[in-house]
Amino acid sequence: MMNVVFIVLYFMIIGLVIEISVTLLKLTGLKNTVARFQVISMLTGTGFTTDESKSIIDHPIRRKISMFLILFGAFSLAVIISSISTMLTDDLRLMELSIIIGIMATLTIIVRTPFLNNRLSNKMHSEMHNHYELWEHPIEDVLFLENEDVVMQIDINEGSEFIDVNTFDIVSRGVDINILFIESGEVKIRKELYEHKIQLGDKLFLYGNKKEIEENFSKEIEAMNQKKNSSERKIPRPKIGAENNYEDLSG
């Protein structure tokens, strides 16, 4: 019974660590859902290979929080396994755990107060501004000034109206779209970007308002989606009970 109480109390500590860490990551600009998933991923050592993990790795302050979570997760796993396997009944230190839970619960409440939220948020932004160069900041903090800002790749397929058109002419004046660079075959064109004439197979990397990009390149986006859906339908699927009746696509 005492072992069960010990494990329950320790899981309460883990839950409080999760809540505090989620709050701190949110103060750095992460969305709540992303912050919570990444915190649990780091604590458990699973799932931290998603694209969203890059938003943690690229941010110096988030990296410090993640290092603590990874170490705490490894330590917690060892503690839980030890408590279950050895069945310590004489010295589970329930009083000490209860005190730790009380302290962390208080800390969780304090961290979530609006006053401290604002202070910590300003402190983190000040830390990033004063101690890190602009190129060290996550790309979303630097480029995504508005909620609708995106970086998007557009493939030039057959039938595109932009084929044989100079790069300078494919984006109208006053439209919130910027061409970052063009990938033409093996060549990435940036220095002489506006002297380039768009060719079949070119890949345009654009930055700007998502809605305006989708409106200006609607035909190209539709062709890309059709190509993607077509390739997905062509992937052979194994039949139940059949053996060696489909191509190995792992290579």
Explain what you see:
Mean pLDDT is 77; it is low at 240-251. The protein has 2 domains: 2-131; 149-234, 2-Layer Sandwich (Alpha-Beta Plaits), CATH 3.30.70.1450. It has helices spanning 2-27, 32-44, 54-57, 60-86, 94-111, 114-131, 139-143, 210-216, 218-234; strands spanning 149-155, 177-184, 187-189, 203-209. Helix 1 (2-27) runs antiparallel to helix 4 (60-86), helix 1 (2-27) packs parallel to helix 5 and helix 2 packs across helix 4. The protein is 54% helix and 10% strand. The radius of gyration is 26 Å and the shape is elongated. It has 9 helices and 4 strands.
Q: Notable features of this structure?
A:
4 strands; 54% helix; single chain; 251 residues; disordered C terminus; Alpha-Beta Plaits; alpha+beta; 9 helices; elongated; four-stranded antiparallel β-sheet
